[in-house]
Amino acid sequence: MPYKPFTFQKKYYTIGEVAALLDVNATVLRFWEKHFTAIKPAKNRKGNRVYTQTDIHLLEKVRFLVKDKGFTLKGAAEQLQQKPLPSETDQKREILDRLVKVKGFLEELKRELGR
């Protein structure tokens, strides 16, 4: 499943809502919280975790690296520290640039074959 950002409607989300959104168990979110120091959800008066938009974005990146790309937890942590993941628009721009180069190559090939 390619990485695609979620559109937010609330300020805070419960662990159950975030788990459903990311298609993982709540226990996995708690486990990731222990292994990734950047994941620090706030807690309400009852002591329940509440996730902000920033927390969810980070968890989406972790899920993408671990579940979709097959990184280990250590590898995913290193990847997150090195550089941010390319956004969807960056990927589209890169694909468009490649297609323009291929089109130019094919047009040049067509001109040479037509001679």
Shape call? elongated
Q: How much β-strand is present in the residues?
A: 5-15%
The helix tally amounts to 5
* Top CATH class of the largest domain: Mainly Alpha
Query: What is the N-to-C succession of helices and strands?
Result: EHHEEHHH
Report the CATH architecture of the largest domain.
Orthogonal Bundle
Q: What share of residues is helical?
A: 55-70%
Number of domains: 2
Instruction: Describe the largest sheet.
Output: 3 strands, antiparallel
Structural class: mainly alpha
Side-by-side strand order of the widest sheet: 1-3-2
CATH-assigned fold name of the largest domain: Multidrug-efflux Transporter Regulator, Chain: A, Domain 2
What is the straight-line distance between the termini? 46 Å
Mean pLDDT: 85
The beta-strand count equals 3
Uncertain stretches:
none
Radius of gyration equals 20 Å
